[in-house]
Write a structure and sequence with these properties.
With 296 residues, this protein is of the alpha/beta class. 33% of the residues lie in helices and 24% in strands. Bound molecules: zinc ion. Zinc ion is lined by residues 40-41, 96, 98-99, 196, 222.
Length: 296
């Protein structure tokens, strides 16, 4: 009887120890997930202290005609699955439909503390709806510009590198080239998230001596031929490149030349059209990569 009781206590202690280790491992991890929103962008960052930041909300107008919107189909379930009941930050990189599309619904349904928006002029209904939702919910709104810094807790942070004043003009796409670019870092690991920035934005970042070094690059503008130049890649030197892109999209994204440039520099490429959602997690030292495809 006594021996049984001792065994039971030992077992209980072992369970608590395992649980504590798991909790510690979880608590000290920063994750960046590139959600699979088809042709568009939506990224979820969770900090080591549990803060949650959503960057863009997917949703090309043409694809959002089914019974469910991109927010209902992908973003809200992804937040629920991860137990995110509140967003600390929603960051819009630029107001194109494939980035702002699902955000109005997210703001309407998930309590949000801060919205960062570069406030680039764009007359699309989905952007207007987003801004109306932000105003209606009285969410604090800050105009996103280079130099701003977000404290994500436990030493993790995000620094906005772009757009800087004066905003770029007369580029192929001023909306793309004034996308918010941010660098998320934790310990020795960092992530460079490019929005839809193209070559003009890359040039500006290089001119301004922005710290571009990263382990993971969220490739700009869905891997289009308009960016991800060799000069830029040599400054950023990522080990991994993630491309958010829709299968059989009509734009020919990602560009074959961009893909071979990445590969020739030894950068491993993951694409949401092939792998589904891609999740990077780090304790500040080691970097783990999981894809939805690998879980199937
Ligand atoms: Zn886009």
């Amino acid at each position: 009887m006594r021996r049984e009781r001792v065994l039971l206590l030992l077992l209980l202690a072992a369970v608590i120890a395992v649980w504590f280790q798991l909790w510690r491992a979880h608590a000290r991890t920063l994750t960046v997930t590139v959600l699979d929103v088809g042709q568009g962008d939506s990224l979820l960052v969770r900090s080591p202290t549990g803060r949650a930041m959503l960057i863009d909300g997917g949703g090309r107008a043409g694809q959002d005609t089914g019974p469910q919107t991109i927010a209902e189909r992908v973003i809200l379930p992804a937040l629920a699955l991860r137990g995110v009941g509140r967003l600390d930050v929603i960051l819009l990189t630029h107001p194109h439909d494939d980035h702002v599309g699902g955000l109005a619904q997210v703001v309407e349904q998930i309590p949000t503390r801060l919205v960062l928006d570069p406030e680039l002029e764009h007359p699309s209904p989905s952007y207007r709806r987003f801004r109306e939702a932000v105003a209606e919910r009285k969410v604090r709104l800050v105009r996103a510009r280079a130099g701003q810094k977000l404290n994500l807790g436990a030493g993790a942070s995000a620094v906005l590198l772009h757009p800087s004043e004066p905003l770029l003009e007369d580029t192929g796409s001023d909306l793309n080239n004034n996308s918010v670019v941010l660098r998320v870092s934790y310990g020795r690991r960092s992530f460079l998230l490019m929005g839809d920035a193209e070559e003009a934005a890359e040039q500006r970042l290089l001119e301004r001596d922005a710290d571009l070094r990263c382990d993971v690059l969220k490739v700009g503008h869905h891997g289009s031929s308009s960016g991800t130049t060799e000069r830029f890649l040599r400054a950023a030197r990522p080990r991994w490149a993630a491309i958010s892109v829709g299968a059989r999209n009509p734009f020919g994204h990602p560009d074959e030349e961009v893909l071979s440039r990445l590969r020739s520099l030894g950068i491993r490429v993951l694409r949401t059209d092939r792998e589904g959602a891609v999740t990077f997690s780090t304790d500040g030292r080691r970097l783990r990569v999981r894809t939805f495809a690998s879980l199937r």
